[in-house]
Amino acid sequence: MLPIQCKLARTALGWGVRDVAARTGMSPATITRFERGDQLRDRTVATLRHLFESNGLEFIDEADGKGPGLRFRQSLPTTAKNED
User: Fold this and answer.
1) 17 and 32 in contact (C-beta within 8 Å)?
2) What is the C-alpha separation between 18 and 14, in angstroms, rounded?
3) Where are the domains of the chain?
4) pLDDT of 52-67, one tens digit each?
5) Three-state SS annotation for the chain
6) How confident is the model at residue 74 (pLDDT cuts 50, 70, 90)?
7) How distant, in Å, are the alpha carbons of 12, 30, 44, 65 from that of 38?
8) In a 10 Å sphere around its CB, with 0-12 CB exposed, 13-18 middle and 19+ buried, how is residue 34 labelled?
């Protein structure tokens, strides 16, 4: 998981830095440091990734040539169309 993917994941879930920190037991400063590009321990990044994946997100790597990304594992519910 890249720092930008962490920020995207938070945004997708509507969470702030403090929300992620509370759910992982990390300090908000750790989350902020990661998102600005500081190197963290592998297990710290793995904990963050697991949190987001367990909340329905899937990380997309750069292998597809389009750059890193993020998506919901399942489609979001669509609004029923009104057929008049």
Assistant:
1) yes
2) 12
3) 3-72
4) 999 999 998 876 667 7
5) CCHHHHHHHHHHHCCCHHHHHHHHCCCHHHHHHHHCCCCCCHHHHHHHHHHHHCCCEEEECHHHCCCCEEEECCCCCCCCCCCC
6) confident
7) 22, 9, 12, 25
8) buried
- Structural fold of domain 3-72: 434 Repressor (Amino-terminal Domain) (1.10.260)
pLDDT, position 76: 53
**Size of the chain in residues:** 84
Query: pTM score > 0.85 for this model?
Result: no
- 8 C-beta neighbours (distance < 10 Å), count: 19
Q: How many CB atoms lie within 10 A of CB 17?
A: 19
